[in-house]
UniProtKB/TrEMBL annotation:
One of its GO terms (molecular function) is peroxiredoxin activity. The keyword Oxidoreductase applies. This is Alkylhydroperoxidase. It comes from Halalkalibacterium halodurans (Bacillus halodurans). Pfam families: CMD.
Length: 147
């Protein structure tokens, strides 16, 4: 796929995969063991791959790791997670991660779902507009807050 045809989420995934490829070339033994470990972790076991992707998404949101949020939002969608399942998982994450986790959940996760086709049609457009409005309000609030 041509980079000009990619949406921002697909470009982020491509950047991540290119970075992994570079790491694999420079550190093949470590990369091989890391890949084997993560493949084993995400293999079907007592938990389904779908459940594991939801957990990984929650951890990614909690850690505020944007590449992993995008990657595991896509993973959830690839495992046929519904929008409700994804939102419930990130809601639980926000219960532990507070406002920082919630801000990632209501912006980046929803943007990734829209970009990867979770919300099609008018509802997806409305969610995107609502998300943008929320970001604008948050930016205004953050300018007034002291850290």
């Amino acid at each position: 796929m041509d980079q000009q045809q990619m949406n921002p989420m697909e470009m982020a995934l491509m950047d991540y995969k290119e970075g992994l490829g570079t790491f694999q070339q420079k550190m093949p033994e470590i990369a091989e063991k890391y890949n084997a470990f993560t493949e084993a972790c995400f293999a079907k076991g007592e938990l389904s791959q779908k459940q594991k992707q939801l957990i990984a998404l929650g951890v990614s949101v909690f850690a505020q790791d944007e590449y992993c949020i995008i990657y595991h939002t896509k993973g959830c969608m690839d495992q046929d997670c519904s929008e409700e399942e994804i939102l419930e998982a990130i809601g639980v994450t926000a219960a532990f991660g507070g406002g920082a986790a919630m801000s990632q959940a209501v912006t980046l996760v929803q943007e990734a779902m829209n970009e990867f086709g979770q919300n099609n049609g008018e509802q997806g457009q409305q969610d995107q507009q609502d998300s943008q409005n929320g970001q604008n309000q948050k930016q205004g609030q953050n300018q007034n807050m002291k850290h």
